[in-house]
C-alpha cells in the first residue's frame, strides 16, 4: 500500500493555535487558459473517470461532465493533512481511483509543492505533498553516503600525508603543514562529519594529489588565483581548477610545472 499526505502551510497569527488548526482550508479548482486544471488527460482520463462520472467515454455528455468534474474539484485539507491512497495493482490501475486522480491533480496544482522545502522557498505554494516512502529513501541515501564517508575516513586516517592533501582541498583556509598529526585527523573528521558527501567526493577523486598541489601552490603565491582563474607569471593556465589540472597533466607544460614545483620547494 502506498499513501501520501497533502499538508498545508501553517498560517501564523494572533488567533489561538486550536482555532487556526480547525480552520477549513481547501485546494480549489483553477483554470489553465480556458479549461480547468486536469489531473489526468486523454486515454488515462477515459479509463479512470469512467469509474467516477455518470456517463461513459464517447457519450455526448462526456465532455460536459468531464469539464464540470475538474471545475468543481476541491480538496479539504485539515490541520493534520489529507491522506490519499495511491496504491496501484500489478497492471498499474489504482485501487482507489478518486484518491489517485486527486493526487495527480494536486501534483499539477500551482499552489501545491512537491516537498515542504519547496513550499517554504515559494510563497505562492500553500500546500505540499508528504510522501513517507520518498522521505524514507532520501534519509537512507544520506545514511549510505555517511557510511561510505566513514569507511573512506578510516582508510585515509592511516596516511597522514593523504589526510593533509584532502584537508587542503576541502578546507582551503587551513594550512595542514602547521597542524600536528592529531590536529589534522581531528579537523578532517569534523569536515567529514559536517559534509560527508563533499568529503567522499574529494577523498576518492583520482586527481586528489594534483588538486592539493595546485591549492598549495596558490597558497604560497607561486600561482595567483583571481576568481576561479589560476595564473602563473603572466599566463592564465586555467579558467578553473579543472582546466588547471589538465594543464598540469599536459606533457608540453612539464617545464613550467617543474619550475613551479622547484619554486614551491624553495619556499618550504
What would you note in describing this structure?
- The chain is of the alpha+beta class and 268 residues long.
- 50% of the residues lie in helices and 14% in strands.
- The strands form 4 sheets. It has a 4-stranded mixed β-sheet. The chain has a 3-stranded antiparallel β-sheet with strand order 9-10-11. It has a two-stranded antiparallel ribbon with strand order 2-5.
- A hairpin with a 2-residue loop joins strand 9 (224-226) and strand 10.
- The longest helix is centred in the middle third of the chain and has 25 residues, at 132-156.
Q: What is the topological layout?
A:
Blueprint: E1 3-8, H1 17-21, E2 26-28, E3 31-32, E4 35-36, H2 42-49, H3 62-71, E5 74-76, E6 82-85, H4 97-108, E7 112-113, H5 116-121, E8 127-130, H6 132-156, H7 160-170, H8 181-194, H9 196-203, H10 208-219, E9 224-226, E10 229-232, E11 235-238, H11 241-249, H12 254-267
Parallel strand pairs: 7-8
Antiparallel strand pairs: 1-6, 1-8, 2-5, 3-4, 9-10, 10-11
Descriptors:
268 residues, alpha+beta, Rec A Protein, domain 2, four-stranded mixed β-sheet, 11 strands
Low-confidence parts: none
| Average pLDDT score | 93
Shape: elongated
Total beta-strand segments: 11
Number of helices, where a helix is a run of at least 4 consecutive DSSP H or I residues:
12
Q: What's the helical proportion of residues?
A: 40-55%
Taking the alpha carbons of the first and last residues, their distance comes to: 65 Å
> How would a crystallographer describe the biggest sheet?
4 strands, mixed
- H/E series: EHEEEHHEEHEHEHHHHHEEEHH
Amino acid at each position: 500500500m502506498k499513501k501520501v499526505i497533502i499538508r498545508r502551510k501553517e498560517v501564523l497569527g494572533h488567533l489561538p493555535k486550536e482555532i487556526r488548526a480547525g480552520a477549513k482550508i481547501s485546494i480549489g479548482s483553477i483554470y489553465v487558459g480556458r479549461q480547468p486544471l486536469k489531473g489526468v488527460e486523454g486515454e488515462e482520463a477515459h479509463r479512470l473517470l469512467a469509474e467516477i462520472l455518470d456517463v461513459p467515454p464517447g457519450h455526448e455528455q462526456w465532455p460536459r461532465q468531464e469539464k464540470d468534474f475538474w471545475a468543481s474539484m476541491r480538496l479539504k485539507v485539515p490541520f493534520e493533512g489529507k491522506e490519499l491512497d495511491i496504491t496501484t495493482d500489478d497492471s498499474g490501475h489504482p485501487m482507489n481511483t478518486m484518491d489517485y486522480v486527486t493526487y495527480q491533480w494536486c501534483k499539477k496544482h500551482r499552489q501545491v509543492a512537491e516537498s515542504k522545502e519547496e513550499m517554504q522557498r515559494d510563497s505562492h505554494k500553500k500546500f505540499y505533498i508528504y510522501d513517507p516512502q520518498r522521505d524514507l529513501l532520501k534519509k537512507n541515501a544520506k545514511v549510505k553516503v555517511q557510511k561510505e564517508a566513514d569507511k573512506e575516513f578510516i582508510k585515509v586516517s592511516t596516511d597522514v600525508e593523504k589526510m593533509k592533501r584532502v584537508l587542503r582541498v576541502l578546507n582551503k583556509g587551513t594550512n595542514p603543514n602547521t597542524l600536528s598529526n592529531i590536529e589534522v585527523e581531528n579537523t578532517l573528521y569534523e569536515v567529514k562529519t559536517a559534509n560527508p558527501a563533499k568529503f567522499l567526493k574529494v577523498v576518492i577523486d583520482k586527481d586528489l594529489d594534483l588538486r592539493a598541489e595546485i591549492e598549495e601552490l596558490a597558497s604560497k603565491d607561486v600561482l595567483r588565483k583571481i576568481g576561479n582563474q589560476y595564473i602563473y607569471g603572466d599566463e592564465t593556465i586555467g579558467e578553473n581548477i579543472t582546466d588547471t589540472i589538465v594543464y598540469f597533466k599536459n606533457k608540453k607544460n612539464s617545464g613550467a610545472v617543474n619550475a613551479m614545483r622547484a619554486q614551491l620547494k624553495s619556499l618550504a
